[in-house]
Design goal:
97 residues, 42% helix, alpha+beta, 3-stranded antiparallel beta sheet
């Protein structure tokens, strides 16, 4: 497998700050020491249900590198149909598909 083309390391969810103002938008950030923005999830709709969904989406996006690492790690232990599905997911995530 080739080296990762995505931003490696752990990702986390944070609110976007401009000076002393914290916005309602969410940001997917790299972990320390860089703390660089990877993606922004804009708050387009109002309401607690939508806010909860946006938080859940942000957490899922932030978990992507960890999920990919688990899939890659499992290559030696998972077989059958799961192997094909896993390998397809890895290929899609790494751009090899």
């Amino acid at each position: 497998m080739s080296a990762a083309a995505h931003t490696t390391g752990s990702w986390e969810v944070a609110n976007i700050e401009f000076g002393n103002t914290v916005t309602e938008d969410l940001c997917i950030m790299t972990g320390s020491p860089d703390f660089r923005a990877i993606a922004t999830i804009a708050r387009c709709f109002q309401g607690d249900r939508i806010k909860d969904m946006e938080q859940a989406n942000a957490r899922l996006i932030a978990l992507a590198p960890d999920l990919l690492a688990l899939l890659v790690e499992s290559q030696s232990s998972i077989g059958g149909d799961w192997r094909e599905r896993r390998d397809a997911a890895i290929a899609k995530a790494t751009g090899a598909a």
